[in-house]
Design goal:
The chain is built from 14 helices and 14 strands. The chain is of the alpha/beta class and about 375 residues long. Strands 3-2-6-7-1-8 form a six-stranded parallel beta sheet, with helices on both faces. Helix 7 packs across helix 9. The radius of gyration is 26 Å and the shape is elongated. The protein starts with 5 loop residues before the first strand and ends with a strand. The C terminus is likely disordered.
Length: about 375
């Protein structure tokens, strides 16, 4: 039996319209004859959301008692017995009441997917485990319900439900998110404009990274070698020399000039096992890369220049930053350096930037391909 497909509506905060969009997609599919059920949906008393659910079959919830209180949860066994083609399951990060088969709702969803049922669900960015500390720092609120990033990352489709901070605050003020008695407190605390703007940026960036992953998979699956400049991705090639700090900072500044720019660092180790760069120096440079928001990569190869070029095309780099050669003029008369080889092999689709530094050989100029020189 083929596994079901998961579609997740991701939002920056409550009230942006995730559940509404989930139900609208269910209505669209049902109108085309697809067997759709509402396995679990929470409308929080919002009239527009409730109206969007009208006409869709709803699987009755399971009533449970815990510590003297009554709760309702998704009836997983009832949904499995009903075997719809598509199940709408709200609030993917929800923690189930003790006594349910699974601790988390995403684990319920996993069982539905294994049974071949497609699932459409919702989650807010603040519930992703990797962002828990960041969200607490921004909002002052620690999220008790979290979900592993990989659960959402593995979704077949991720739809970003976006809304500006001002629009969401207006929606809140008009009573379309919380009941009247909660509006003033919400606007003064979690729903402050700064909080919502920061959460929105987190959601946009996280979703952009997932789109980028999908693009890299597509390029790999279709054997596409030439970079697609969808955004600036700057790769700094590090030999392990003392000039690395200068190159790293230059790559960071270059990547920061454009919106959504990204920078990566790569070090090529010899594949013959011979000793290379100083491990302590590489560790320090890796720490610098990561402190500046870049990602560190180590590859092996017999030809450093070709290894750098292959990696650049693999990660869809648009620019490569290298250091001016440390080789003497005499050595240059008898062999071509790594930098020259990178420049000549970059073609027309990758720009190469040669950065001067104090370790560069004096009087040495690259006379091929005339790259941009940075001082």
């Amino acid at each position: 039996m083929p596994r079901g497909r998961l579609r997740v509506y991701l939002g920056a905060a409550p009230g942006v319209g995730k559940t509404y969009d989930m139900l609208a997609e269910g209505q669209r599919r049902a109108s085309r004859g697809t067997d759709v059920v509402v396995a679990f949906m929470e409308d929080y008393g919002r009239p527009l959301t409730r109206r969007m659910a009208e006409g869709l079959e709803t699987v009755a919830r399971r009533t449970m008692t815990y510590r003297g209180c009554t709760f309702t949860e998704m009836d997983l066994d009832a949904v499995l017995a009903r075997r719809p083609r598509v199940a709408l399951v709200d609030e993917l990060a929800h923690t189930n009441v003790p006594g349910c088969r699974h601790e988390k709702r995403w684990q319920d969803v996993e069982e539905l997917l294994e049974a071949g049922i497609d699932v459409i669900s919702t989650v807010n960015i603040q519930h992703l485990e990797s962002l828990n500390d960041v969200v607490e720092q921004i909002t002052g609120v620690r999220q008790r319900e979290t979900i592993p990033d990989d659960v959402v990352r593995r979704a077949d489709q991720i739809e970003l439900v976006d809304m500006s901070a001002e629009a969401l605050r207006r929606r809140m003020a008009h009573g379309n998110v919380y009941p009247p008695e909660r509006i003033d407190a919400a606007l003064a605390n979690f729903f402050r404009a700064g909080n919502l703007t920061a959460l929105r940026e987190l959601a946009l960036l996280w979703a952009a990274d997932r789109v980028d992953e999908a693009l890299l998979r597509y390029r790999h699956d279709h054997g596409i070698q030439q970079p697609w400049g969808t955004r600036e991705r700057v790769l700094v090639a590090l030999s392990g020399g003392p000039e690395g700090d200068t190159l790293i900072r230059r790559a960071k500044r270059t990547a920061s000039r454009g919106a959504g720019g990204e920078f990566l660092a790569v070090h090529v180790a010899h594949d013959d096992g011979l000793a290379g760069a100083c491990p302590k120096l590489l560790a320090r440079q890796r720490a610098l890369v990561e402190s500046l928001g870049g990602s560190w990569h180590a590859v092996t190869g017999g030809d450093p220049a070709q290894a750098v070029l292959a990696f650049a095309r693999q990660v869809n780099a648009t620019q490569i930053v290298i250091g001016a050669t440390r080789r003497s003029r005499l050595k240059g008369l008898f062999s071509r350096g790594t930098g020259e080889t990178i420049i000549e092999g970059s073609g027309d689709d990758i720009d190469v930037y040669v950065v001067t530094h104090t370790e560069a050989a004096h009087g040495r100029f690259l006379n091929r391909h005339r790259p941009h020189q940075e001082g």
